[in-house]
5-deoxyglucuronate isomerase (Devosia geojensis), 267 residues
Amino acid sequence: MATTPNLRLRPKGDTGLVHDVTPKSAGWTYVGFKLHRLSEGGTAGGETGSDEVCLVLVSGKARISVDGQDFGELGERMSPFEGEPYSVYVPAGASWRAEAATALELAVCAAPGVRGAYAARVIAPGTNPRITRGKGSNTRYVTNILPETDPAHSLLVVEVITPAGNTSSYPPHKHDTDNLPYESLLEETYYHRFNPPQGFAFQRVYTDDRSLDVAMAVEDGDVSLVPKGYHPVATVHGYDSYYLNVMAGPHRTWKFHNAAEHEWLLK
Protein backbone atom coordinates (compact mmCIF):
# COMPACT_ATOMS: atom_id res chain seq x y z
CA MET A 1 0.00 0.00 0.00
CA ALA A 2 1.32 3.44 -0.94
CA THR A 3 2.04 5.76 1.96
CA THR A 4 0.42 9.19 2.15
CA PRO A 5 3.06 11.93 2.05
CA ASN A 6 3.17 14.45 4.88
CA LEU A 7 2.42 17.75 3.13
CA ARG A 8 1.42 19.67 6.29
CA LEU A 9 4.23 20.90 8.54
CA ARG A 10 3.57 22.24 12.03
CA PRO A 11 5.88 24.91 13.51
CA LYS A 12 8.71 23.57 15.65
CA GLY A 13 8.13 25.58 18.80
CA ASP A 14 7.00 29.14 19.39
CA THR A 15 10.26 31.06 19.01
CA GLY A 16 13.42 30.98 16.92
CA LEU A 17 13.61 29.02 13.69
CA VAL A 18 10.18 27.35 13.64
CA HIS A 19 10.17 26.19 9.99
CA ASP A 20 13.11 24.99 7.93
CA VAL A 21 12.07 23.52 4.58
CA THR A 22 14.93 22.62 2.24
CA PRO A 23 14.83 20.94 -1.16
CA LYS A 24 16.25 17.83 0.53
CA SER A 25 13.67 17.74 3.31
CA ALA A 26 10.82 18.39 0.85
CA GLY A 27 12.09 15.84 -1.67
CA TRP A 28 12.28 18.29 -4.53
CA THR A 29 14.78 20.55 -6.33
CA TYR A 30 14.18 24.28 -6.08
CA VAL A 31 12.21 25.83 -3.19
CA GLY A 32 13.41 26.52 0.35
CA PHE A 33 11.46 28.21 3.14
CA LYS A 34 12.40 29.24 6.69
CA LEU A 35 10.37 31.12 9.28
CA HIS A 36 11.93 32.95 12.23
CA ARG A 37 9.87 34.17 15.20
CA LEU A 38 11.89 36.65 17.22
CA SER A 39 11.31 38.83 20.27
CA GLU A 40 12.44 42.46 20.26
CA GLY A 41 16.25 42.50 20.11
CA GLY A 42 16.48 38.97 18.71
CA THR A 43 18.57 38.35 15.61
CA ALA A 44 18.63 36.04 12.61
CA GLY A 45 20.96 35.85 9.63
CA GLY A 46 22.70 33.64 7.18
CA GLU A 47 24.72 33.11 4.03
CA THR A 48 22.73 32.65 0.84
CA GLY A 49 25.40 30.55 -0.91
CA SER A 50 24.08 29.39 -4.28
CA ASP A 51 20.54 30.59 -3.52
CA GLU A 52 18.83 33.93 -3.89
CA VAL A 53 16.57 34.90 -0.99
CA CYS A 54 13.57 37.12 -0.37
CA LEU A 55 13.17 38.18 3.27
CA VAL A 56 9.49 38.92 3.97
CA LEU A 57 8.46 40.74 7.14
CA VAL A 58 5.26 38.81 7.74
CA SER A 59 4.68 40.91 10.85
CA GLY A 60 6.73 43.31 12.94
CA LYS A 61 9.73 45.55 12.34
CA ALA A 62 13.43 44.80 11.89
CA ARG A 63 16.73 46.42 10.98
CA ILE A 64 18.13 44.51 8.02
CA SER A 65 21.56 44.59 6.42
CA VAL A 66 23.05 42.72 3.46
CA ASP A 67 26.84 42.38 3.09
CA GLY A 68 27.21 45.24 5.56
CA GLN A 69 24.80 47.55 3.70
CA ASP A 70 22.32 48.79 6.28
CA PHE A 71 18.78 49.16 4.94
CA GLY A 72 17.59 50.63 8.22
CA GLU A 73 14.51 49.73 10.19
CA LEU A 74 11.83 48.25 7.95
CA GLY A 75 8.26 47.17 8.56
CA GLU A 76 4.90 48.77 9.24
CA ARG A 77 2.34 46.09 9.91
CA MET A 78 2.12 44.15 13.14
CA SER A 79 -0.11 41.50 11.58
CA PRO A 80 -0.16 40.06 8.04
CA PHE A 81 -3.79 41.23 7.87
CA GLU A 82 -2.80 44.92 8.23
CA GLY A 83 -1.67 45.90 4.73
CA GLU A 84 1.20 45.09 2.41
CA PRO A 85 4.64 43.86 3.51
CA TYR A 86 8.18 45.11 3.47
CA SER A 87 10.60 42.63 1.90
CA VAL A 88 14.30 42.53 1.01
CA TYR A 89 15.82 40.74 -1.99
CA VAL A 90 19.19 39.15 -1.15
CA PRO A 91 21.29 37.81 -4.05
CA ALA A 92 23.27 34.58 -4.19
CA GLY A 93 26.68 34.73 -2.53
CA ALA A 94 25.63 37.32 0.07
CA SER A 95 25.23 37.44 3.85
CA TRP A 96 22.27 39.01 5.62
CA ARG A 97 21.31 39.94 9.17
CA ALA A 98 18.03 41.00 10.76
CA GLU A 99 17.59 42.46 14.25
CA ALA A 100 14.02 42.58 15.51
CA ALA A 101 12.84 46.03 16.58
CA THR A 102 9.53 44.52 17.74
CA ALA A 103 8.14 41.02 17.93
CA LEU A 104 8.90 39.70 14.45
CA GLU A 105 7.90 36.99 12.02
CA LEU A 106 10.49 36.85 9.25
CA ALA A 107 10.10 34.51 6.29
CA VAL A 108 13.18 33.48 4.31
CA CYS A 109 12.12 32.43 0.81
CA ALA A 110 14.86 30.74 -1.22
CA ALA A 111 15.54 29.31 -4.67
CA PRO A 112 18.61 28.86 -6.89
CA GLY A 113 20.35 32.12 -7.85
CA VAL A 114 23.34 33.41 -9.81
CA ARG A 115 26.12 35.32 -8.06
CA GLY A 116 26.52 38.87 -9.28
CA ALA A 117 23.33 38.86 -11.34
CA TYR A 118 21.27 41.21 -9.14
CA ALA A 119 21.87 43.67 -6.29
CA ALA A 120 20.23 43.55 -2.88
CA ARG A 121 17.21 45.82 -2.65
CA VAL A 122 14.24 46.73 -0.47
CA ILE A 123 10.82 45.84 -1.86
CA ALA A 124 8.54 48.42 -0.24
CA PRO A 125 4.75 48.25 0.12
CA GLY A 126 3.11 49.43 -3.10
CA THR A 127 5.95 48.23 -5.34
CA ASN A 128 3.37 45.86 -6.83
CA PRO A 129 0.01 47.10 -5.49
CA ARG A 130 -2.48 44.63 -4.10
CA ILE A 131 -4.96 43.32 -6.67
CA THR A 132 -8.36 41.68 -6.37
CA ARG A 133 -8.72 38.28 -8.02
CA GLY A 134 -11.90 36.27 -8.54
CA LYS A 135 -15.50 37.20 -7.78
CA GLY A 136 -18.22 36.37 -5.30
CA SER A 137 -17.18 33.70 -2.80
CA ASN A 138 -13.98 33.17 -4.80
CA THR A 139 -12.72 36.72 -4.18
CA ARG A 140 -9.22 37.10 -2.69
CA TYR A 141 -6.59 39.85 -2.45
CA VAL A 142 -3.15 39.27 -3.92
CA THR A 143 0.17 41.08 -3.39
CA ASN A 144 2.92 40.05 -5.79
CA ILE A 145 6.05 40.59 -3.70
CA LEU A 146 8.47 39.17 -6.28
CA PRO A 147 6.67 38.49 -9.57
CA GLU A 148 8.28 37.31 -12.79
CA THR A 149 8.34 40.92 -14.06
CA ASP A 150 10.75 41.98 -11.28
CA PRO A 151 14.48 41.14 -11.23
CA ALA A 152 15.44 37.71 -9.86
CA HIS A 153 16.83 34.46 -11.23
CA SER A 154 14.26 31.81 -10.25
CA LEU A 155 12.30 32.98 -7.19
CA LEU A 156 8.60 33.93 -7.20
CA VAL A 157 6.96 35.20 -3.99
CA VAL A 158 3.32 36.22 -3.46
CA GLU A 159 0.94 36.63 -0.53
CA VAL A 160 -2.83 36.21 -0.54
CA ILE A 161 -5.62 37.29 1.81
CA THR A 162 -8.80 35.22 1.48
CA PRO A 163 -11.90 36.46 3.34
CA ALA A 164 -13.75 34.09 5.64
CA GLY A 165 -15.94 31.59 3.79
CA ASN A 166 -14.16 32.10 0.45
CA THR A 167 -12.02 29.83 -1.69
CA SER A 168 -8.64 30.60 -3.25
CA SER A 169 -6.12 28.88 -5.50
CA TYR A 170 -9.44 28.06 -7.13
CA PRO A 171 -10.78 26.86 -9.53
CA PRO A 172 -8.18 24.11 -9.02
CA HIS A 173 -5.03 24.71 -11.05
CA LYS A 174 -1.64 23.07 -11.31
CA HIS A 175 1.85 24.00 -12.49
CA ASP A 176 3.80 20.74 -12.42
CA THR A 177 4.68 20.17 -16.07
CA ASP A 178 7.51 21.80 -18.03
CA ASN A 179 5.41 22.51 -21.11
CA LEU A 180 5.85 26.17 -22.00
CA PRO A 181 4.16 28.31 -23.13
CA TYR A 182 1.15 26.40 -21.78
CA GLU A 183 2.35 25.33 -18.33
CA SER A 184 5.44 25.81 -16.18
CA LEU A 185 6.90 23.47 -13.58
CA LEU A 186 6.91 25.21 -10.20
CA GLU A 187 7.28 23.72 -6.73
CA GLU A 188 5.37 25.67 -4.07
CA THR A 189 5.09 26.22 -0.34
CA TYR A 190 2.24 27.88 1.56
CA TYR A 191 2.76 29.56 4.94
CA HIS A 192 -0.65 29.91 6.62
CA ARG A 193 -1.95 32.45 9.14
CA PHE A 194 -5.53 33.06 10.31
CA ASN A 195 -7.49 35.92 11.81
CA PRO A 196 -8.51 35.21 14.56
CA PRO A 197 -5.59 32.80 15.02
CA GLN A 198 -7.65 29.83 16.27
CA GLY A 199 -9.07 29.50 12.75
CA PHE A 200 -8.31 26.93 10.11
CA ALA A 201 -8.87 26.16 6.43
CA PHE A 202 -8.91 23.10 4.22
CA GLN A 203 -6.43 22.43 1.44
CA ARG A 204 -6.42 19.54 -1.02
CA VAL A 205 -3.36 18.57 -3.09
CA TYR A 206 -4.20 16.08 -5.83
CA THR A 207 -3.36 14.92 -9.35
CA ASP A 208 -5.64 13.98 -12.22
CA ASP A 209 -4.98 10.27 -11.72
CA ARG A 210 -5.29 10.61 -7.91
CA SER A 211 -1.89 8.99 -7.42
CA LEU A 212 -1.48 11.97 -5.07
CA ASP A 213 -4.62 12.97 -3.19
CA VAL A 214 -4.11 14.60 0.22
CA ALA A 215 -6.77 16.63 2.04
CA MET A 216 -5.66 18.48 5.16
CA ALA A 217 -6.87 20.98 7.72
CA VAL A 218 -4.25 23.73 7.97
CA GLU A 219 -3.98 25.86 11.10
CA ASP A 220 -2.27 29.08 12.10
CA GLY A 221 1.49 28.82 11.52
CA ASP A 222 1.41 25.69 9.35
CA VAL A 223 3.36 25.22 6.12
CA SER A 224 1.90 23.10 3.34
CA LEU A 225 3.94 21.62 0.50
CA VAL A 226 2.77 21.38 -3.11
CA PRO A 227 5.20 19.13 -5.00
CA LYS A 228 2.72 18.66 -7.86
CA GLY A 229 -0.96 18.66 -8.67
CA TYR A 230 -3.92 20.91 -7.97
CA HIS A 231 -3.98 22.70 -4.59
CA PRO A 232 -7.19 24.66 -3.76
CA VAL A 233 -7.80 26.25 -0.36
CA ALA A 234 -11.20 26.74 1.31
CA THR A 235 -11.64 29.00 4.32
CA VAL A 236 -14.35 28.59 6.95
CA HIS A 237 -16.91 31.05 8.29
CA GLY A 238 -15.49 33.60 10.74
CA TYR A 239 -11.79 33.25 9.91
CA ASP A 240 -9.82 35.19 7.28
CA SER A 241 -6.87 33.39 5.73
CA TYR A 242 -3.41 34.68 4.90
CA TYR A 243 -0.81 32.67 3.07
CA LEU A 244 2.63 33.38 1.73
CA ASN A 245 3.57 31.41 -1.40
CA VAL A 246 7.11 30.61 -2.56
CA MET A 247 7.48 29.13 -6.05
CA ALA A 248 10.44 28.16 -8.23
CA GLY A 249 11.29 25.79 -11.04
CA PRO A 250 13.45 25.49 -14.15
CA HIS A 251 11.85 28.59 -15.74
CA ARG A 252 10.82 31.73 -13.88
CA THR A 253 7.28 32.08 -15.14
CA TRP A 254 3.85 31.24 -13.70
CA LYS A 255 1.85 29.38 -16.34
CA PHE A 256 -0.85 27.18 -14.87
CA HIS A 257 -3.34 24.60 -16.11
CA ASN A 258 -6.90 24.64 -14.79
CA ALA A 259 -8.67 21.40 -13.94
CA ALA A 260 -10.83 20.87 -17.02
CA GLU A 261 -13.95 19.75 -15.11
CA HIS A 262 -13.98 22.99 -13.12
CA GLU A 263 -13.19 25.53 -15.86
CA TRP A 264 -16.89 26.29 -16.27
CA LEU A 265 -16.60 28.31 -13.07
CA LEU A 266 -14.56 30.92 -14.95
CA LYS A 267 -17.28 31.59 -17.55
Observations:
- The mean pLDDT is 97.
